[in-house]
Write a structure and sequence with these properties.
Layout (H helix, E strand, L loop, with lengths): L5 H7 L1 H15 L5 E11 L4 E7 L5 H4 L3 E9 L8 H8 L2 H11 L6 H7 L1 H53 L1
Antiparallel strand pairs: 1-2, 1-3
Helix pairs in contact: 1-7, 2-7, 6-7
Length: 173
């Protein structure tokens, strides 16, 4: 089996990998939280990046056989699960929309479910804008962190392989 210098390939493709990692985050950041479905980024030995949707328990044959490496895997998540719905609604609706929605609620709490019942189109617009902003605000930092971890791991792997060769050479003398 051919030895692949993954560190060298990762370093050469770092800008493309960062862009692809950002895309992985953007795609995973959707309104369908589902830990069984995920976005996957893998790289073939020629540096080709492949971004696809997969099930959580699936590994490609190329990765399994050592002809590719998986760079990242992220389960789908709903960014609205981490927020105060009333705050998001208050921030993303126009003043008039918020007044009309508040009148409709007649004293009840602001929730996305009730917003959807009141006006499906406004609720969809809010969810889309919030999700896009959340991904734009968080994807670059996540991509940078993952990239640093990839470089560290590939570097450590390369050192371990070098040490194995050196130890094998020592045994020959």
């Amino acid at each position: 089996m051919e030895k692949i210098n993954w560190l060298e390939i990762i370093e050469e493709e770092s800008d493309n990998i960062l862009d692809a990692l950002t895309a992985v985050y953007d795609e995973a950041c959707c309104l369908n939280a589902n830990s069984e479905i995920c976005q996957v980024l893998k790289m073939n030995s020629d540096g080709t990046l492949i971004h696809h949707t997969s099930t959580a328990d699936n590994t490609s044959s190329a990765v399994w056989n050592g002809n590719a490496i998986e760079l990242a895997r992220m389960a789908w998540f709903n960014p609205l699960d981490f927020t105060d719905e009333a705050e998001v609604i208050s921030s993303y609706l126009t003043k008039e929309e918020l007044q009309d929605f508040t009148r409709y609620l007649d004293g009840e709490n602001l929730t996305l479910h009730k917003l959807r019942q009141w006006n499906f189109y406004i609720a969809d617009r809010l969810e889309k804008k919030y999700t896009e902003k959340y991904a734009a605000d968080n994807a670059p930092a996540w991509a940078d962190k993952v990239m640093q971890e990839l470089l560290k791991h590939a570097s450590e792997y390369g050192r371990a392989e070098t040490q194995k060769v050196e130890l094998a050479d020592l045994g020959k003398s």
